[in-house]
Design brief:
By secondary structure, this protein is an alpha/beta fold. It has three domains: 167 residues, 3-Layer(aba) Sandwich (Rossmann fold); 189 residues, Nitrogenase molybdenum iron protein domain (Rossmann fold), CATH 3.40.50; 30 residues, no CATH class. It has 17 helices and 15 strands. The strands form three sheets. The chain has a six-stranded parallel beta sheet with strand order 1-12-11-10-13-14, with helices on both faces. Helix 4 packs across helix 7 and helix 5 packs across helix 7. The longest helix is centred in the first third of the chain and has 19 residues. It is globular. It starts with a strand and ends in a 5-residue tail after the last helix. 42% of the residues are buried.
C-alpha cells in the first residue's frame, strides 16, 4: 500500500490535482433506480415489504415482530457489562451537555404602534433515527444512536423512533438496545436499509410515520433519504467519511498516521488527506502509514481507501496549506501545529475542527460532546453538523396593530397590485372602515 504524495506550489493547482477525488461523488448507475423500487414497494406493501427485505438482506428466517419489545430492550441492557454501560452513560452526558447549549429561545419584538412580531421555536412531533448495524450487527454504531437521539431529546421531541438492522438471528445488538434503554427510548424497530427510511417517511401498519429522519448510512440509505426529502425533513445528504490533517514539521508522523487510518478503516470510499509544508514529514508519514496499515484488522479496507482516495499534499507554506484545506472543506479537519488556535480562525469550511496534539478525530466521534454527524464531500461550504436545530422548526408570529395597518395599508395594497394580486390588496383595504 502506498499513499500518493502530491506537490503543489499554489493553492489554485489543487483543482487540477484533485480530479481523482471527484469520483467519490458518483455512487454508480443503478443505485437510485433500486432505491426507488424499494421505496415504492414499502409504500404499497408496508409491513410485508419490510419483512421481505429483511429476510433477503439481513435475516433469512426472520419471523419475530418488527418492533423490539420493552422487555427485550431491558434484558439486553442488563446483559451488557457495567463497565460498558458506564462508558455509554458518560459519553451520553458529555453529548447532552454540549447540545443543551444549542437550545434556541422563542422571541418577540414590540413596535411603538403596538404591533407584536416574533418567532416561535418548536420541536417536531416525531423523529426517526437510523442506526447502522455494522458488519451484520457485530460492530454496532452505539455512538450514532447517542449523537442523533440526544439532540432530538434536548430539542423536546416527544416521539423518537429508532430503526436498526437485525443480526442474522433476528436480534438487535444488545449494546444498541442498552443505549436506547439508557436514553429511555422504547420505540425500536429491527429494520435496516433503504426500506427503513421509506417506512419512517410513509409509515406502515407497525411503524407510524415521523417528521424528521436523521442518522448516517450507506449509499442506499443516503439515497433513500434524498428521495423522501420533502415528505419528511432530513438531517443531511452525507457521503463516505473523510479527514484532512493540516500539519507542519512539528507534527508526529506516528500519531498522524494513526489519525488518518482511523478514517480510512471506515470504508473503501473514505478519504484521508494530510496537507503539510514539510517534505520530511510527508516522506515519514508515507512510510508510517504503510507500517501501521499492515497491522490493522481492517487492513484491506484501509489500504484501498488510502490508495484510491488518500493523499499527502506538499505545499510551500502554511498559508497555502490552509487555502487547500478550505478548498477541500472536509468533514473532519485536524490542525496539527504548535499553535493551532492561531491557525483555527483562518479555517472557513469544515464539518468539525480538532485543534492540537491531543484532539484526534475519534475524541469527537465518541466522547467529547459535539456531534459526529457531519457534512461531507465539500458540503461543509454551506452545511452544518446535526444539532438540536435539526429537530426544530421556527414559526413567525405577526400581531399587527390597528395603527400599523391604517398607516401602511396603501403601501401593502400597492405592492399587491404590482404583483397582480387584487384580492390581496382588497384584504387590507377592507379593514379601512374599522
Amino acid at each position: 500500500m502506498t499513499c500518493r504524495i502530491l506537490t503543489l506550489q499554489h493553492a489554485q493547482e489543487w483543482s487540477d490535482l484533485s480530479q481523482w477525488l471527484r469520483a467519490r461523488h458518483n455512487p454508480g448507475n443503478g443505485v437510485e433506480d433500486a432505491v426507488r423500487d424499494i421505496v415504492s414497494e414499502v409504500r404499497s406493501n408496508r409491513d410485508e415489504a419490510l419483512v421481505s427485505y429483511t429476510r433477503k438482506f439481513d435475516c433469512p428466517d426472520f419471523d419475530v415482530p418488527l418492533r423490539v419489545s420493552s422487555q427485550e430492550i431491558a434484558r439486553a441492557a442488563a446483559s451488557v457489562s457495567a463497565e460498558s454501560r458506564g462508558i455509554i452513560s458518560t459519553a451520553a452526558a458529555n453529548i447532552r451537555h454540549f447540545h443543551e447549549a444549542q437550545r434556541e429561545k422563542s422571541w418577540f419584538l414590540t413596535r411603538p404602534d403596538g404591533s407584536i412580531l416574533g418567532q416561535r421555536v418548536l420541536p417536531v412531533d416525531a423523529a426517526g433515527l437510523y442506526v447502522p448495524g455494522g458488519q451484520g450487527g457485530n460492530t454496532p454504531l452505539i455512538s450514532s444512536l447517542l449523537m442523533t437521539a440526544i439532540p432530538a431529546q434536548v430539542a423536546g421531541v416527544e416521539r423518537i423512533v429508532v430503526c436498526t438492522p437485525p443480526r442474522k438471528d433476528g436480534s438487535v445488538n444488545p449494546h444498541i438496545l442498552a443505549a436506547a434503554h439508557l436514553l429511555d427510548i422504547d420505540e425500536v424497530y429491527r429494520v435496516g436499509g433503504a426500506w427503513a427510511i421509506a417506512a419512517m417517511a410513509y409509515g406502515t401498519q407497525s411503524l407510524a410515520p415521523v417528521d424528521v429522519i436523521a442518522g448516517p448510512g450507506n449509499i442506499y440509505v443516503t439515497t433513500a433519504k434524498r428521495l423522501v426529502q420533502g415528505v419528511v425533513g432530513i438531517d443531511m445528504i452525507a457521503g463516505p467519511s473523510e479527514v484532512l490533517a493540516l500539519a507542519d514539521s512539528s507534527a508526529e508522523p506516528v500519531w498522524l498516521a494513526a489519525d488518518l487510518l482511523s478514517q480510512a478503516e471506515h470504508d473503501p470510499l473514505a478519504s484521508a488527506i494530510c496537507v503539510t509544508d514539510s517534505r520530511r514529514l510527508a516522506e515519514a508519514l508515507q512510510q508510517e502509514l504503510k507500517k501501521q496499515c499492515a497491522s490493522l484488522p481492517r487492513a484491506d479496507i484501509a489500504s484501498r481507501s488510502l490508495e484510491d482516495w488518500g493523499a499527502i499534499v506538499l505545499t510551500p507554506d502554511l498559508k497555502t496549506s490552509v487555502a487547500v484545506a478550505n478548498m477541500v472543506a472536509p468533514e473532519h479537519l485536524e490542525i496539527c501545529t504548535p499553535d493551532p488556535w492561531d491557525v483555527g480562525p483562518f479555517i472557513k469550511h469544515a464539518g468539525a475542527i480538532f485543534l492540537g496534539r491531543y484532539s484526534p478525530e475519534p475524541v469527537g466521534d465518541y466522547y467529547a460532546g459535539p456531534n459526529h454527524v457531519l457534512p461531507t464531500l465539500g458540503t461543509a461550504r454551506f452545511s452544518s453538523a446535526l444539532s438540536v436545530q435539526t429537530f426544530c422548526k421556527k414559526t413567525s408570529v405577526i400581531a399587527a396593530s390597528k395603527s400599523f395597518l391604517q398607516q401602511n395599508k396603501q403601501a401593502i395594497a400597492t405592492l399587491a397590485r404590482l404583483e397582480g394580486l387584487e384580492a390581496h390588496a382588497r384584504s387590507v383595504e377592507a379593514r379601512s372602515a374599522r
